[in-house]
């Protein structure tokens, strides 16, 4: 049956002569499944379904891959055969395990994958569960989410009218996350235009997925050309700009996410819309949680190669919010980090923009039993930028001598030396007293 057309009369005659309607082939298939496969291949063998069912063919047989006749009839949009199969007792909740391929997990998913509104309508009206998901799959999507991913707006509307859920359960991908991850700007617009009361509800628009991303944060992290459009759509729909889970240490704002991923166009949209440039959340580039961290810190930590671009694009907010002198949980400003890395060009840029060269590293607001507290850094507290650079250079040169000049280390020390020379020139003009090195470091 799967190789070409067959005649229902011949099938009936064979069955009347005692042929087994559930006989398995060497590959583990059965006649009813072979008929379904032939329909996928555009052979009209639907007439064989009736006699097979009359003589006891199992309408719910599944092969080794979990495929049932209902999956294949739905996928081939064989409405008459599917209707007969349903009347013959086929289960519409038959689950096909494994990856969500073009065939789909359930017959309903199969019909959605083919874009057949008629098959979807038949299945839903016949009792197919619109919110059935794989309970063990943390990234499971509902039929609504699947239709959104495939840009099937007619099917999407039908499923929503039938009670289709926008979110499998709290803490998982909802329909907005799915649309974003699949770059479906048109679906986002459709949802907010046609189903705004659902799509803009707090549990959906501000809901977190497994990565602790709201849809807005997911949009900021998405590496696509349509990222700015998606961010704009979500903001227009009412997404809370600085929303994050305050009780979860890995949750961070959309501004922090956009900065980490180098999504500077999205970052500008967020800042222009009123998002806070102080991210106050952790960075995925580090194992600990930053506190009171600004976009300028995150860009330096994760996208050093694009630091100049961030400065250029966000300069108005950097100056407005005094981000140059904002401290992170270690009590350091961005100038201290630029010095620590020996980035002379960055040091010059920051000072020209207004970073305070005389500002000192202060005591971080951490207890000594805090896992983020590094007791070794206590020795730097109270040092200004120049003193910090000198001590760094001195300590690393001493380590270099002890380690017999580890390969690659000298270049870094050389960069620190250039930073020291530049800072010394600046301070000689501003305040020569700031050039004094505390006696404790000279011994």
From TrEMBL:
ANK repeat start and end residues: 65-97, 103-135, 330-358
Keyword NADP annotated: no
Keywords (A to Z) from UniProt: ANK repeat, Repeat
SUPFAM superfamilies: Ankyrin repeat
InterPro entries, A to Z: Ankyrin_rpt, Ankyrin_rpt-contain_sf
Keyword set includes Repeat: yes
PANTHER family in the record: ANKYRIN REPEAT AND PROTEIN KINASE DOMAIN-CONTAINING PROTEIN, ANKYRIN REPEAT-CONTAINING PROTEIN-RELATED
Protein's recorded name: Ankyrin repeat-containing domain protein
Lineage: Eukaryota, Fungi, Dikarya, Ascomycota, Pezizomycotina
């Amino acid at each position: 049956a799967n190789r070409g057309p067959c005649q229902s009369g011949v099938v009936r005659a064979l069955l009347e002569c005692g042929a087994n309607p559930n006989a398995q082939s060497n590959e583990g298939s059965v006649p009813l499944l072979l008929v379904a496969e032939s329909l996928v291949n555009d052979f009209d063998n639907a007439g064989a379904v009736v006699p097979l069912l009359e003589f006891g063919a199992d309408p719910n047989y599944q092969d080794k891959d979990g495929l049932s006749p209902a999956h294949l009839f739905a996928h081939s949009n064989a409405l008459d055969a599917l209707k007969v199969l349903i009347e013959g007792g086929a289960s519409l909740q038959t689950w096909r395990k494994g990856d969500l391929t073009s065939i789909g997990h359930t017959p309903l998913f199969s019909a959605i994958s083919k874009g057949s509104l008629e098959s979807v309508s038949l299945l839903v009206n016949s009792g197919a569960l619109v919110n059935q998901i794989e309970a063990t799959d943390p990234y499971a999507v509902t039929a609504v989410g699947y239709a959104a991913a495939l840009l099937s707006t007619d099917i999407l509307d039908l499923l929503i009218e039938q009670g289709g859920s926008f979110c499998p359960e709290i803490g998982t991908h909802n329909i907005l996350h799915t649309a974003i991850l699949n770059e479906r700007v048109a679906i986002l617009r459709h949802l907010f235009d046609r189903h705004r009361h659902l799509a803009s509800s707090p549990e959906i628009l501000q809901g977190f997925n497994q990565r602790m991303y709201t849809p807005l944060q997911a949009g900021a992290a998405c590496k696509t050309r349509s990222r700015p459009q998606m961010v704009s759509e979500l903001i227009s729909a009412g997404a809370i700009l600085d929303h994050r889970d305050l009780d979860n240490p890995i949750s961070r704002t959309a501004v922090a996410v956009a900065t980490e991923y180098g999504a500077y166009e999205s970052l500008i949209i967020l800042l222009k819309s009123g998002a806070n440039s102080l991210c106050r959340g952790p960075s995925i580039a580090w194992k600990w949680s930053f506190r009171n961290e600004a976009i300028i810190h995150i860009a330096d930590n994760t996208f050093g190669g694009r630091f100049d671009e961030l400065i250029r694009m966000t300069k108005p907010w950097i100056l407005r919010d005094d981000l140059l002198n904002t401290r992170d949980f270690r009590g350091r400003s961005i100038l201290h980090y630029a010095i620590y890395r020996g980035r002379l060009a960055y040091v010059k840029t920051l000072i020209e923009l207004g970073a305070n060269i005389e500002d000192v590293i202060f005591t971080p607001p951490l207890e000594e039993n805090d896992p983020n507290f590094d007791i070794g850094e206590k020795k730097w507290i109270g040092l200004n930028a120049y003193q910090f650079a000198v001590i760094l250079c001195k300590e690393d040169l001493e380590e270099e001598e002890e380690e017999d000049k580890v390969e690659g280390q000298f270049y870094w020390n050389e960069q620190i030396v250039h930073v020291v020379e530049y800072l010394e020139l600046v301070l000689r003009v501003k305040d020569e007293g700031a050039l004094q090195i505390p006696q404790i470091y000279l011994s």
